[in-house]
Amino acid sequence: MCGDAAMLKPFKDKNYAYLTYPKLTVVVTAGIPGRATAMAASWHTYLSLDPPLYGVSIAPKRFTHKLITEHREFGVNFLPFELSKLIWDVGSVSGAKIDKFEKFNIKTFNGEKIRAPLIADSIVVLECKVTDTVRTGDHDFFIGEIVYAWYREDLFSKDYTLDVSKASQAYYLGKGKFIATDPRRVLEFL
Ligand SMILES: Cc1cc2nc3c(=O)[nH]c(=O)nc-3n(C[C@H](O)[C@H](O)[C@H](O)COP(=O)(O)O)c2cc1C
Question: Which fold has domain 23-179?
Fold first, then answer.
């Protein structure tokens, strides 16, 4: 693909969000054992190295929002591409009335520093404690300090980059479609 400004057209629809996809999509977990939920989240980001801060953008109507507000902590679970259907499922139904861990048969494990259930099939899991909440339009941006982290050592290279020949995380493209990373298309500059 080569650059051609003439091919760029004004986008008139006000819903710009999908223009910025694909997005690495995680599952945010919140609550305490017995009253917890898990939801798909495409709007999340690393924010600071020292202190280590991570942010997740969550609409107030989500049950996850209620549980994070109550307990001031959340888990960020990075699932492999193969579990895209699970990400889709937990992103399609609210946990306010059902136990998604039971319904979708999600294996969990206990965190070191937070009580929210963490997802055993993850590649990486971050345990976060809320330090700030910022209202951002129709979402609230929860900023959490990463107080503990887990990773699948066997899927990472020695320099702590994901070995994409062994695993891909799940990228949401929009409209129900997920894509994987392509290990044949890696550019290296070091
Ligand atoms: C791929 C995908 C990405 C999503 N990303 C977000 C997000 O970043 N923030 C958000 O508030 N909701 C997002 N959602 C919607 C929630 O995951 C969904 O409403 C979920 O059912 C909420 O569950 P809960 O009510 O148990 O918290 C996403 C849904 C999907 C399918």
Answer: Pnp Oxidase; Chain A (2.30.110)
| Ligand 1, atom 30, residue with closest C-alpha | 91
Write b or e for each residue in 58-80: b if 16 or more Cβ atoms lie within 10 A of its Cβ, otherwise e: beeebbbbbbbeebbbbbbbbbb
Instruction: Give, using CA atoms, the residue closest to atom 20 of ligand 1.
Output: 91
CB 42 near ligand 1, within 6 Å: yes
* Cβ–ligand 1 contact at 21 (below 6 Å): no
Instruction: Read off φ and ψ for residue 68, nearest 5 degrees.
Output: -65, -40
pLDDT digits (tens, 9 = 90+) for 115-160: 999 999 999 999 999 999 999 999 999 999 999 999 999 999 999 9
Ligand 1, pocket-test mutation among 42, 74, 139, 173, most atoms within 8 A of CB: 42
Q: What tens digit of pLDDT does each residue of 21-71 get?
A: 999 999 999 999 999 999 999 999 999 999 999 999 999 999 999 999 999
Q: Residues of 155-175 as b/e, b for ≥16 C-beta within 10 angstroms?
A: bbeeeeebebeebbbbbbeee
